[in-house]
Write a structure and sequence with these properties.
The complex is a heterodimer. Chain A is 10% helix and 44% strand. Chain A is elongated. The chains are: A mainly beta, B mainly alpha.
C-alpha cells in the first residue's frame, strides 16, 4: 500500500523560516508542498520520511529567499494491482459502490465487479441511494441475506489505479476532480464485507 | 521536481504506523500540539483500525524469516502482514494459484500467521477499543520473547504502550 519514493526538488525557502535549523525549515516547506497531494503515477503523498541531501543555498538576484535543491524520501500511498485492502462504504448507488479509507475517498467498485448475482434495493425516501444484496445460493432465503451496508468494513481487491489528467473546464454540477481513482472488485472468495466471511466454514463447503 | 526513484522500497502498514508514532501521533484528542498534519492523522486513524496497530518489529521480522520456506512473492507477504488473515478463506484471494503452489500447505501458512502475528482488536466502542488493545498486546507479549523491554530502539521512542507493557512484565 505504501512505498518510499526518492524525489529531488528545487525549492525556495521563504525568509520567515530562516530562524529554524536548515533541515527543519526545509522539511516544513516540503510538507506544505507535497503532503496530501497526488503526484501522477506516484500516488498520494502521505508524509516526508527523511531528507537525504541538501545542495545549493544560492540567492538569485532580485529574490529575498535562498533556493535549495533537496533530495528526500516521501511515503506515498500507491496500491498495487491485486492488493487487498479493507475500507468503509461511503456511498452506494445504482452504479456500484464508493469506498473510503479515511484519508482517501475515490475508490469505486462498479456494478460488474460486485459478486454475481446481486440486486439493488433502494432505500425508502432516498432516490439514488440504496444497498446491495448478494443473492447467494437458491436454497436459503432470508437467513443468509448478504447485505453490503454502510457501517461494515469491506475488503476489496485493487483492479486498476488511474490518474486522470486535469480537465480544462468542469461543468458545475459534477463531482470535484479526482486526481487518482482506484477501481476495485469484490467478486472473489474472501472479499466483500468482513462480516460475511466470519462464519467461513459454512460458505466454504458450498463454494 | 524530479522523481529519482519511484519505488525506493515497499512499506508495510506497520512500518508507516511506527513512523507516525515516532513523530508523535497518538489517539488522544490533544492533537494540535504535535507537528503532524491533519491528513497524516487520517492515515494514523486508518492504520490504528487495521491489524497493524498491535504488531511489533520483532513479530514482523520473525514472520519474514519463517515464511521464506513458502517462497511467496513480495506482494503476497506484504498483503499477509497487512491483513493478518486468520482463516483459509481469507488467504485464498491473496495468493495466486494457491492450489497449484500449496494445496495442503496453505493451512500451515495460515497457522503460521495466527501464531506469529497478533490478533487485531475486535471492533468495539472507541474507548473500550483502547483497553482491549492493551490487553491483547499484554497477553501476546508474555507469550513472545521478553526481549521487547530490552530492545533499545523501542525504549528510545516514546511509545506509551510499550512502556506500560514493560512495567507490567517486571512485576509478576
Amino acid at each position: 500500500m505504501f512505498y518510499l519514493s526518492l524525489i529531488e526538488h528545487t525549492l525556495r525557502l521563504p525568509p520567515h523560516l530562516l530562524h529554524l535549523p536548515l533541515d527543519e525549515a526545509l522539511k516544513t516547506e516540503l510538507k506544505t508542498l507535497f503532503i496530501d497531494k497526488v503526484i501522477a503515477n506516484l500516488g498520494l503523498c502521505i508524509s516526508v520520511y527523511d531528507i537525504r541531501s541538501i545542495k545549493g543555498g544560492f540567492v538569485f538576484p532580485g529574490d529575498g529567499a535562498s533556493t535549495y535543491t533537496v533530495e528526500f524520501r516521501l511515503i506515498v500511498f500507491r496500491p498495487f494491482i491485486g492488493e487487498i485492502i479493507v475500507a468503509k462504504v461511503k456511498e452506494s448507488d445504482a452504479n456500484g459502490l464508493r469506498l473510503s479509507l479515511g484519508f482517501f475517498d475515490d475508490i469505486y467498485v462498479p456494478v460488474d465487479q460486485l459478486p454475481i448475482p446481486s440486486r439493488f434495493e433502494v432505500l425508502p425516501n432516498m432516490r439514488n441511494r440504496g444497498r446491495w444484496i448478494w443473492d447467494y445460493g437458491g436454497e436459503q432465503s432470508d437467513e443468509q441475506d448478504f447485505l453490503i451496508e454502510e457501517t461494515n468494513p469491506i475488503k476489496f481487491q485493487v483492479q486498476n489505479v488511474i490518474y486522470p489528467s486535469i480537465p480544462l473546464e468542469q461543468p458545475e454540477n459534477t463531482k470535484p476532480f479526482a486526481p487518482m481513482v482506484i477501481t476495485g472488485t469484490v467478486n472473489n472468495d474472501g472479499l466483500g464485507p468482513v462480516s460475511w466471511w466470519e462464519e467461513a466454514e459454512i460458505i466454504e463447503d458450498k463454494s | 521536481m524530479k522523481i529519482k526513484e519511484a519505488n525506493a522500497g515497499a512499506l508495510t502498514n506497520f512500518e508507516v504506523l511506527d513512523f507516525l508514532r515516532s513523530r508523535g501521533a497518538s489517539k488522544d484528542p490533544t492533537r494540535v500540539i504535535v507537528s503532524i498534519a491533519p491528513s497524516e492523522f487520517k492515515v494514523y486513524d486508518y492504520l490504528m483500525e487495521s491489524p497493524a496497530c498491535n504488531q511489533t518489529k520483532e513479530q514482523v521480522s520473525e514472520f519474514l524469516t519463517r515464511c521464506e520456506s513458502y517462497k511467496l512473492a513480495k506482494a503476497e507477504v506484504l498483503n499477509i502482514i497487512n491483513l493478518r488473515p486468520s482463516q483459509l478463506v481469507e488467504i485464498v484471494p491473496i495468493i495466486e494459484e494457491s492450489e497449484k503452489r500449496f494445496g495442503e500447505k496453505l493451512e500451515e501458512l495460515v497457522n503460521l500467521v495466527v501464531e506469529v502475528l497478533p490478533e487485531p482488536p475486535k471492533k468495539a466502542v472507541p474507548e473500550e477499543e483502547k483497553e482491549v488493545e492493551e490487553d491483547t498486546a499484554d497477553g501476546k507479549n508474555t507469550d513472545e520473547d521478553k526481549t521487547e523491554t530490552t530492545n533499545p530502539e523501542q525504549i528510545d521512542e516514546d511509545q506509551t504502550e510499550e512502556n506500560e507493557d514493560g512495567e507490567q512484565m517486571e512485576t509478576p
